[in-house]
Amino acid sequence: MESVLIVGCGYIGRRVAARLQARGAAVTGLVRSAAAARGLHEQAIRVLQADLDTAGTRAFPADGFADIFYFAPPPSQGETDTRMAAFLKALDTGVPPRRMVYISTSAVYGDCQGRWISETEPVNPATPRGRRRLDAENRLRAWAEDHDVEWIILRVPGIYGPGKLPLDRLRAGTPVLCEADAPYTNRIHADDLAAICVAAMDCAGADTVYNVSDGHPSNMTDYFFRVADAAGLPRPPEIARAEAAQVLTPGMLSFLQDSRRMDNEKLLKELGIRLQYPDLDAGLKS
Ligand SMILES: NC(=O)c1ccc[n+]([C@@H]2O[C@H](COP(=O)([O-])OP(=O)(O)OC[C@H]3O[C@@H](n4cnc5c(N)ncnc54)[C@H](OP(=O)(O)O)[C@@H]3O)[C@@H](O)[C@H]2O)c1
């Protein structure tokens, strides 16, 4: 029987778990909160409850799993991923896994001025959020190479799916950048991402990076307009970039800093992926 650990078993982790359980795998999920632990129990996922911000290295038994998916985000402050560091330290004490699959983000590329990019694009994160992700990637790679563990890094853009659409923002009438100023944004549907995670764990090749995207980027304003249209909500007002700096939160502004279009050819070819939702319209229809 496969023995699988999903570190940060939330929205995507539970979808991955369901796919693995369907083929008979025994899945354990690491979460921080009691509420999340209850959700895992309901899905018959074994629970490891630990807070990677405070757990000592022996506080949770993370070793003995053949396959580890790592989906916990870095902390929201600083330039490093202390959670990844704590987890890898915990792994140090036992038998290492066969392979680790990590969900990183496309923010590690920084601003590419709207260019199409493949995995050969140099990393150049422009935000602390991006630098923390790159720190996590680098720690994972170094640890895995030291311990003879296979690794796969998935650089993931905006995830959308049931419960993951900006409907509250649209209802609130929060403005968006006028289309001429809006950066390119890339997306992937949650169910396709879950399938990609499983394929990344199963595939023959290892020690590599994949850009994850449905291959149909558009500008961010177009995204909000299409979601509004599909949900029957009014389109949000458009504002210029100078005004956005006054009106939008720093968090929102950080997502407007980078513009790139992600090529997904390597993903589709090497992982043999056929996307269920190859573009936003297909995903929104569902
Ligand atoms: N949203 C996007 O568009 C997007 C884009 C690219 C990448 N990502 C990344 O993709 C990954 C998966 O996303 P998701 O939607 O599945 O995230 P999610 O639902 O928020 O799940 C995150 C999981 O990490 C756990 N976690 C967080 N802090 C922890 C800590 N200190 N110690 C232990 N566990 C901790 C959470 O446990 P509790 O629930 O108990 O706190 C939860 O199970 C995340 O890293 C996310 O940042 C997201």
The gist of it:
The protein is 37% helix and 19% strand. The chain has 286 residues and is α/β, with parallel strands linked by helices.
Task: Give an overview in words.
The protein has 286 residues and is α/β, with parallel strands linked by helices. The protein has one domain: NAD(P)-binding Rossmann-like Domain (Rossmann fold, 3-Layer(aba) Sandwich), CATH 3.40.50.720. The chain has eleven helices and 15 strands. β4, α3 (82-91) and β5 (99-105) form a beta-alpha-beta unit. α1 (11-21) packs across α6 (190-202) and α3 (82-91) packs parallel to α4. The longest helix has 19 residues, at 128-146. The model has no long low-confidence stretch (mean pLDDT 95). It binds NADP nicotinamide-adenine-dinucleotide phosphate.
Give the secondary structure arrangement, pairings included.
Elements: E1 3-7, H1 11-21, E2 26-31, H2 34-42, E3 46-49, E4 67-70, H3 82-91, E5 99-105, E6 116-117, H4 128-146, E7 150-156, E8 158-160, H5 167-172, E9 176-177, E10 184-185, E11 187-189, H6 190-202, E12 208-211, E13 218-219, H7 220-231, E14 238-239, H8 241-247, H9 250-255, E15 261-262, H10 265-270, H11 280-285
Parallel strand pairs: 1-2, 1-4, 2-3, 4-5, 5-7, 6-15, 7-12, 8-11, 9-14
Antiparallel strand pairs: 10-13
The chain binds NADP nicotinamide-adenine-dinucleotide phosphate (NAP).
NADP nicotinamide-adenine-dinucleotide phosphate binds next to helix 1, strand 5 and strand 8.
